[in-house]
Input
Amino acid sequence: MSAISREEVSHLAMLARIDLQPDELDRLAAQLDVILDAVATVTQVAGEDVPATSHPMPLTNVTRPDEPRPCLTQDEALSGAPAAEAGRFRVPRILEED
Amino acid sequence: MTGTSLPADLTRATAAGLAQALAAGEVSAVEVAQAHLDRIAAVDGTRDADGVATGKAVHAFLHVCAESALADARAVDDARAAGQPLPALAGVPIAVKDVMATRGLPTTCGSRILQGWVPPYDATVVANIRAARMVVLGKTNMDEFAMGSSTEHSAYGPTRNPWDLDRIPGGSGGGSAASLAAFETPLATGTDTGGSIRQPASVTGTVGVKPTYGAVSRYGLVALASSLDQAGPCARTVLDTALLHQVMAGHDPMDSTSLTGEYPDVIAAARAGATGSLDGVTVGVVRELSGDGYQAGVLRRFEESLAVLTEAGAKVVEVSCPSFTVALAAYYLILPSEASSNLAKFDAMRYGLRVEPGGVAVPTAEQVMGATRAAGFGDEVKRRIILGTYALSSGYYDAYYGSAQKVRTLIQRDFAAAFGQADVLVSPTSPTTAFPLGDKLENPLAMYLQDVATIPANLAGVPGMSLPSGLAEEDGLPVGLQILAPAGADDRLYRVGGALEAILTARWGGSVLDRVPDLSAALATAANGATR
Output
């Protein structure tokens, strides 16, 4: 029984905003199945009493002084933009058609 | 002439040797830069208009900045002539992994989605390198977004291993490692999320160090998995690695995970190690990181290294870290989870590629994202983003990501116990020597196994080094020894590595890289083959 179906991969691709082609869906579903099978061992080793670790160093709320510093100019910030207009990022429409 | 004796071919010199000769005025920074640029021109090969490697050559560099390198070198020479005080490595060339933002130089991270991007700022590591007045030669190739162990996942074609141009140079930092083994540069930078500095060092006969998590700033590095990523130095000798380590490391207010407080003197440790004595040092052999799945020649060199460490005065003991056997599984849940989140920023809006989907008159931002990410990301990146999206989705989160985080706790406990018994731990760096290009491309899991011995250090944040332990008898390819130390004790890597290197090079009558095949001959053969 496979851990992940082609339909699930298709749904995940939508969530991740990657338009996968049909052949990619087939290939990925098969590969992810093998990988998930291998990584599933993690579910068997740690008991309830083991706390989770999200980070190698225990750090909390690291802040730096809130002082004005030099930063990018507007031109620099826009220098890599795929499209810019009037000193702003120009983006595709974000609403569906009327 | 006094003191320093540089080799006639400047590209064979160490960074330490070059720094000394430059300071003494025996050679100019321009001469040094030009020698390395000439070497790059001779062995690195060419790329087509789209940046893709053409023909059989090393292809360690994605971008060579000859003009700015020579200008930087000239400025160092002028400053020296004017009697200005200069940092120790002023005028020494360096190659920068393409994961690091470089102001004015293209930064692609091996991906199509960043093709042509020129960052408006320097990563802190790069700023440190420039402040040290080192000469940046160019940007080195890597697996796309540092996902891979062979550079075959670079969108611009693989780098080839100078030991055998039909084999992988390791990854993700295969470009940096190959550039060192091909004598294109004496120093290079790397980043190590699961082994991307150490495994390439292992398979190319070079030295690489992943410092303690937080020792080197992550500001301006294209993030892969933020709780695992750590930048570090790559070189051909332990001392050269230490010299670069010192330049790269240091507290940075721009990185909230950057370490504060005391940090050991790694250069002094490397020099102390070079005396060859390890009296009073206990070395732990990790039982779980050798044996089954490791190539015979790799194990033989490992056993030999243990004998050398004993000869040097170290006490060698066996330690057990049972949870290391599930480190790889935990890593391939944690890394894709963090990566899927980090790579969400490539949305075609503010920088990088933008692709308009076909068949839609006026596409929405969401449709543009989907089309751009489909066109801009390669197979391995897509695979890991989907895997991470899966591991983080509700219903699976606790079982996968949650369990992996618990394993991370167990691995930290294993390290703590092991470092209670030993000052450093050792293992082979990689289970195999360099494998042929294409060998593992269709089998992602086999590729992931390359990092089985290096991953535990990233999960726990401890520092690790790989250095050459000789050549495997069955294939004549380099083998690496991994040394691991407790967090913050990076100096121990250099002390032990320095001693091993001193004894082994004395035994071999030179460095392992003295035996790298003559590249000009290999390239001539390749060129003849191409015309036939």
